């Protein structure tokens, strides 16, 4: 008994010393040849794959087991001794150490973990959640063989849930096999699933497959994508299809997304929502179930429908390249600038011409008036004769004095070119429907006291402009999402001092479809420039592929052709039949009627005056 009791302490001490030696020397993990094998595989990944994607590499070691953490440190030492090609940010993460995560963009990451919990401890999801560009994650999972399947599935599910499209997991088996797994979110067997798929293996000298991060969205196997949209022609036109009991989409943006569906082989599920007033929106973008919220909840994949790009929306959501841009223009009623009938009578001549003509008339009247009654008896009218000659009236009889005859002949011949030029200019200007010069900019309109009207979305954009922000009540928003309705309101209120702010392309379509396209005037200087595009949930893995395809279509001219065809089709559909424009509108001839009536009245007064003078003489 004593012997055994004395031997037990020495045996425990020997075991403790041996355990400490193994723990610090790491020889219990695996042989040195196996360590070099794994290090060689990692070195090729870093040099040939990760270094080609970025000049900065983030290496995070996150484990729950202390021995695995030390083994990862040992592996990093082997790598750093033989490789110095790129800047490395090395993070060591342990759950028992309370520390704030290192914030900032992590474009390419090499994560060394021993479990799914180790991946969560890195908190790298929060670091990259606010960025749109794709990230690359190469995860080295070091675990016992019987634990690998479950941990691998949890990690890939995490990649799918957080839109990590380029997410590879490398494992090492007990037989020193180095394999790489990934997932395909859309496959023939299922959609939005993360089943492990082997994509590469290391043979000791090189990786068997040349492509470490395969393209996963070129073939989506007909999986459905939910498209949130609303009726906004010509961009999106929703028509109910009773045959299939669902909405059918048309328009420029629908044509674009259908082309993407054919190219990437996915199906479309249209979800139609109603646009509400701005004061009913929670984020000034949508209601609790508005487009912004539904995208943030990831209830839908894409949202489009003349969806204007703003800094706030781009901060909350992900958007590819803008495929549509147009000016916001101010539109006026030309009736406000029409020159009146009385103003049109004096418009043909400048002020200097009218002053010279009045001076000549006064001089001729001054020559005739001193002769008094004798001049009337001899010349047949005196002052009225001077006015009659100016208007082209004939003399009843020639005056007897030779100087009066010379003055009358001179006055008659001098007034002929004046009458010809005045009458020709007058009728030419009446035919042209002359207008005064409208305002040239938004600042001039506001300075002249005009009141602007626009849609709620446009009003939100205009409030960011300094001249509107100084006086927010200078432009009012109407309860409609359509610029077409705003222009209709403008045409129905021709007597008010208002102007409309609308999209330039929609305005041109409205003018082509209007029965009186010349009744409106587009201010020369644009009010603002707006961009439209499709939106996706933040950090969506669809961004990279969709953005690439849109850029390719834009460079080849397809998007421009589709947009022009859609706008042209709206003009043809909404256009008023040409027969309704053939009738002459008598309101356009009112100026001519008033001028002729004034001339006849003046001639009647002259004739009546001559009769009275005749009877008096």
Automatic annotation (TrEMBL):
Membrane topology per record: Multi-pass membrane protein
Highest taxon above the source species: Eukaryota
Ranges of residues in domain Putative ionotropic receptor ligand binding: 29-218
Places the protein is found: Cell membrane
Keywords: Cell membrane, Glycoprotein, Membrane, Receptor, Transmembrane, Transmembrane helix
Cross-referenced SUPFAM superfamilies: Periplasmic binding protein-like II
Transmembrane residue ranges: 342-367, 379-398, 591-613
Keyword Membrane assigned: yes
Membrane as UniProt keyword: yes
InterPro entries: Insect_Ionotropic_Sensory_Rcpt (IPR052192), LBD_receptor (IPR056198)
GO cellular component: plasma membrane
PANTHER family given in the database record: IONOTROPIC RECEPTOR 20A-RELATED, IONOTROPIC RECEPTOR 40A-RELATED
Protein name in UniProt: Putative ionotropic receptor ligand binding domain-containing protein
Gene: Dere\GG17604
């Amino acid at each position: 008994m004593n012997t055994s009791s004395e031997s037990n302490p020495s045996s425990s001490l020997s075991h403790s010393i041996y355990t400490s030696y193994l723990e610090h020397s790491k020889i219990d993990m695996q042989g040195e040849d196996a360590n070099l094998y794994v290090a060689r595989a990692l070195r090729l990944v870093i040099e040939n794959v990760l270094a080609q994607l970025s000049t900065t590499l983030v290496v995070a070691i996150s484990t729950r087991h202390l021995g695995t953490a030390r083994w990862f440190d040992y592996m990093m030492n082997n790598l750093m001794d033989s490789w110095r090609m790129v800047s490395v940010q090395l993070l060591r993460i342990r759950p028992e150490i309370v520390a704030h995560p290192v914030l900032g963009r992590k474009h390419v990451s090499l994560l060394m973990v021993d479990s799914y919990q180790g991946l969560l401890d890195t908190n790298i999801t929060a670091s990259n959640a606010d960025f749109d560009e794709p990230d690359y994650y190469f995860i080295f999972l070091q675990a016992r063989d019987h634990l690998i399947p479950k941990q691998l599935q949890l990690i890939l599910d995490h990649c799918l849930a957080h839109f990590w499209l380029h997410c590879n997991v490398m494992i090492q088996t007990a037989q020193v096999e180095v394999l790489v797994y990934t997932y395909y979110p859309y496959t023939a067997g299922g959609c939005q699933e993360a089943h492990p798929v082997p994509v590469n293996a290391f043979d000791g000298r090189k990786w068997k497959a040349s492509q470490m991060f395969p393209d996963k969205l070129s073939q989506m196997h007909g999986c459905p994508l939910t498209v949130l949209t609303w009726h906004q022609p010509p961009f999106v036109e929703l028509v109910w299809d009773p045959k299939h009991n669902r909405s059918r989409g048309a328009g420029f943006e629908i044509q674009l997304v259908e082309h993407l569906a054919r190219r990437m082989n996915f199906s479309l599920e249209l979800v139609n929502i109603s646009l509400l007033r701005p004061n009913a929106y929670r984020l000034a973008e949508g209601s609790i179930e508005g487009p912004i919220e539904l995208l943030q909840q990831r209830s839908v994949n894409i949202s489009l429908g003349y969806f204007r790009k703003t800094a706030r929306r781009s901060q909350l959501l992900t958007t590819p390249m803008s495929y549509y841009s147009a000016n916001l223009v101010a539109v006026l009623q030309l009736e406000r600038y029409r020159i009146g009938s009385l103003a049109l009578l004096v418009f043909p001549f400048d002020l200097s011409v009218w002053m010279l003509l009045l001076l000549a008339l006064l001089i001729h009247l001054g020559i005739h008036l001193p002769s008094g009654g004798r001049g009337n008896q001899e010349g047949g009218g005196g002052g009225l004769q001077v006015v009659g000659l100016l208007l082209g009236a004939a003399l009843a009889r020639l005056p007897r004095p030779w100087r009066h005859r010379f003055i009358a002949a001179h006055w008659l011949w001098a007034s002929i070119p004046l009458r010809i030029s005045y009458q020709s200019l007058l009728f030419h200007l009446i035919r042209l429907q002359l207008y005064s010069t409208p305002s040239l900019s938004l600042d001039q309109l506001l300075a002249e006291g005009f009141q602007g009207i626009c849609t709620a979305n446009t009003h939100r954009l205009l409030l960011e402009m300094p001249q509107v922000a100084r006086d927010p009540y200078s432009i009012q928003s109407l309860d409609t999402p359509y610029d077409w309705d705003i222009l209709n309101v403008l045409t129905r209120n021709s007597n008010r001092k208002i102007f409309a702010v609308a999209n330039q392309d929609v305005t041109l379509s409205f003018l082509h479809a209007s029965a009186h396209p010349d009744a409106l005037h587009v201010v020369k200087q644009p009010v603002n420039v707006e961009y439209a595009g499709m939106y996706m949930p933040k950090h969506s893995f669809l961004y990279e592929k969709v953005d690439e395809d849109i850029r390719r279509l834009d460079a080849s001219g397809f998007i421009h052709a589709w947009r022009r065809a859609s706008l042209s089709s709206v003009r043809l559909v909404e256009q008023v039949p040409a027969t309704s424009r053939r009738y002459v509108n008598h309101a356009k001839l009112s100026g001519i009627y008033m001028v002729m009536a004034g001339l006849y009245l003046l001639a009647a007064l002259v004739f009546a005056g001559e009769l009275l003078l005749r009877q008096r003489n």
